[in-house]
User: Fold this.
Amino acid sequence: MKIDLSNHPYFISYNGTYIRFCFKKQEKEYTYGSSVTKFLELTVLSHQFNQLEGFLNTISKNIKKENIDKTTVSIFDDGYWDYGKAIPKRKIKSVFIEREKMNDLIKTIQNFVDSKKWYEHHGIPYHLGILLHGRPGVGKSSIIKALAAYFGYSIYVMPSHKLLKIDEALESIPRKKCIMVIEDIDCSVGGLSREGGGGLLSGGDLSNILNAVDGIMTSHNHIIIMTTNHPDKLDPALIRPGRIDKLIEIGYVNLEILNQFLKRHFDKTIDGVTLKDEITCAQLQQMVLEKRSFDEIVQAVTIEGTVIK
Assistant:
């Protein structure tokens, strides 16, 4: 059942006790603007306040049960995180990338998760930044979904055009079991470069963003994964160590990636071939959706003859 709480209170009965829901907004003024926080106010119309705790526990258990095989995705929208939807968990083996690179990403995140006390002991800000760069369609978003599913994390999407409010987003994001994702950061205003480039972002704006990611007032205990098609458009200060700890290029399909794909979909692999240039995983996926056969796909992406193993 979907409840529209935008215009009026809503009452529900739980174990004979009425609980009132009311949608609230709270505005806050900041030096560089304002934000709006949206929340629900729950009121128990009874002396038995423990009924509210029981009600919330029931909801929590049902949500966890419903989303046990899903990854929750939220989007930042002017001062608050708007819960979007729960998507099916993406398995690591369903993402086609060199195993060495995937293992490196998993190890990087796992080491970060296991090293909180080490960071604190050495006075190092406890946050992790990863940049995935590569051409459109190579699988950057799929990799993020698979990593989130592997670690049981939620995804919090920070739209690149709202980066000027990243300090608010970091302050309000949960402090554990989540990944903030900034996709296509090169498409943000001005390309995030102090060189300008005709965008709307000034050098002062970029400075505020950099300080929010890694500055005196930076919140700790978060993981940020950025993606870009054009790393050359990013200001070096944004991707320096301390803000970005791991840079990984996600390239076009090579023989290892192609064989992962063919093995998963057809239980066959190939050898002794030369691949065409600039084939992406998105193109391979489209061929499968078009119901192309093993031989048709191999012919479409290779130049020389094929030896089937």
